[in-house]
Write a structure and sequence with these properties.
It is built from twelve helices and eleven strands. With 301 residues, the protein is α/β, with parallel strands linked by helices. It has two domains: 73 residues, Arc Repressor Mutant, subunit A (Orthogonal Bundle), CATH 1.10.10; 206 residues, D-Maltodextrin-Binding Protein, domain 2, CATH 3.40.190.
């Protein structure tokens, strides 16, 4: 693809909004674009990429399998664009200091942006460097001094670091719209789930550790792995495509559940969990890191 053919970020933002809100009209409204302009923008994006992103019908439009993949890649592009703009803003306002943060995927994708926006109310010139890791890697970064503060989603407080609970989350069982479990009238039991091959995150992910720990405690063994994937987005796309069921953070699937592209299956299992800030050094945090934890706790309450 030549430089002149790079897709516009506005078109990618619109495509993500369509995925999140379930239709072109709702997606267009969310980004402040008239629907005729939105339809033209999506058509140009399809031509530029050379793939069909939407299946259009009289009842509306839905994303193709290729469209689902492009949406998740587009999220990465938009996140990188926000990082660029935030970094440029920090360079334009010298003297604001720097904070290095490592966060697990669920926190980084769904909570940290709002926390940082709240932090910048008091620290307008602050430069923040964010690294997205799984929970085990975040703890390793904190212990290794590669970041000032971490946010993790494991089932228990990690060893060797200071911790503070900032928010709560829960894991939910999700399937694609055509999965047989969408028609069941009873909850999935722990034994049944432990016998079911699941789409899962990689070892070290807080989501996987929480599920495995609970199933081992209740049944004596974890569920078999159907396919192991390295991000919430990849698992979500695979479930939507009908590859199998998965247990994911409610935060990571809320938009898909609202749009009907994923369906929640009731579980006879409590998979609530706490999200924690982690750091080393004195028990009491000070400075900008303490302010960020305070913002996170306030927004999570």
């Amino acid at each position: 693809m030549d430089m002149e053919e790079w897709p516009e970020t506005a078109a990618l933002e619109l495509l993500v909004a369509v995925a999140d809100h379930g239709s072109v009209s709702a997606g267009a409204r969310s980004v402040g674009m008239a629907q005729p302009n939105a339809s033209r923008s999506l058509a140009r994006l399809e031509r530029a990429l050379g793939v069909g992103l939407l299946v259009r019908a009289t009842t509306g439009a839905r994303l193709t399998p290729a469209g689902l993949l492009v949406v998740d890649w587009a999220r990465d592009v938009l996140a990188a664009s926000r990082t660029l703009l935030d970094g440029a803003a920090a360079l334009a306002t010298p003297g604001g200091g720097e904070l290095a943060v490592a966060a697990s995927q669920t926190v980084a994708e769904h909570l940290l942006p709002a926390w940082l926006a709240g932090l910048r109310v008091a620290h307008a010139g602050l430069s923040v460097r964010v690294e997205v890791r799984n929970t085990a890697e975040v703890v390793a970064d904190v212990l290794g001094g590669r970041c000032d503060l971490g946010f993790v989603e494991g089932p228990r407080a990690p060893r060797g670091v200071r911790t503070s609970v900032v928010a709560a989350d829960e894991l939910v069982l999700v399937v694609g719209p055509d999965h047989p479990w969408t028609r069941r009238r009873t909850r999935v039991t722990p034994d049944e789930l432990a016998r079911t091959p699941l789409l899962t995150r990689e070892p070290g992910s807080g989501t996987r550790v929480r599920l495995d720990d609970e199933l081992v405690a209740r049944t004596g063994h974890a569920a078999p792995t159907l396919q192991e994937l390295g991000s919430n987005a990849a698992v979500r796309v695979a479930v939507q495509a009908g590859a199998g069921p998965a247990v994911l953070s409610r935060l990571s699937v809320a938009d898909a559940l609202a749009a009907g592209t994923l369906l929640e299956v009731p579980l006879d299992l409590d998979l609530g969990r706490e999200l924690r800030a982690v750091w080393t050094g004195p028990r009491r945090l000070t400075g900008v890191a303490a302010d960020l934890v305070a913002v996170a706790r306030a927004q999570g309450s």
